[in-house]
Design a protein that fits this description.
- The protein is mostly helical.
- Helices cover 58% and strands 12% of the residues.
- It folds into three domains: 30 residues, no CATH class; 55 residues; 38 residues, no CATH class.
- The chain has a three-stranded antiparallel sheet, with no helix packed on it.
Length: 126
C-alpha cells in the first residue's frame, strides 16, 4: 500500500503510509449510498412529523415538544451529512456551533422581549 491509496472496504478512507506502516487516515466525504440512506431517514422522520401533527388525542404541548425534537434531529442530520460538517475540520465545526449558539441566544432574547410586551390579555403594548 502506498500513500494516497484508498483502503479497501473502508468506505472511502485515504491512507498515508510510511515504511509500510499506516501513519494517517483521512476520512473522505460519504458515498452516494450513504446520502440516499440519510435521505430515506429524513423522509421517514418527516412522515412521523406529519402523523404527529394530525394526531387528535395528543396534548398540544407534547405535540410541540415531539415536533421540536424531530426537527432538531433532522437539522443535525442535514448539517452533519449534507453540509459535510461530519468530515470537515474541527475549526469549521466550532465556528458553525458558535454561530448557532449565538443565533439561539439572540432569538431567545427577542422572544423574551416580545413576550414582555404583551399584557395579561395577550395584547401588544408597544
Amino acid at each position: 500500500m502506498t500513500t494516497g491509496e484508498l483502503l479497501s472496504g473502508s468506505g472511502g478512507e485515504l491512507v498515508g503510509v510510511e515504511h509500510g506502516e499506516v501513519v494517517e487516515v483521512e476520512h473522505l466525504h460519504p458515498q452516494p449510498r450513504q446520502y440516499v440512506m440519510i435521505a430515506v431517514v429524513l423522509v421517514v422522520i418527516t412522515g412521523i412529523e406529519i402523523a404527529v401533527s394530525y394526531a387528535t388525542g395528543l396534548n398540544s404541548n407534547v405535540m410541540i415538544g415531539v415536533l421540536l425534537v424531530l426537527a432538531a434531529f433532522k437539522f443535525f442530520l442535514v448539517v452533519a451529512w449534507y453540509m459535510h460538517l461530519k468530515t470537515d475540520s474541527k475549526m469549521l465545526r466550532r465556528w458553525f456551533i458558535t454561530g448557532l449558539v449565538l443565533a439561539f441566544i439572540v432569538f431567545s432574547i427577542v422572544i423574551l422581549m416580545l413576550h414582555g410586551m404583551l399584557n395579561s390579555s395577550n395584547v401588544y403594548r408597544g
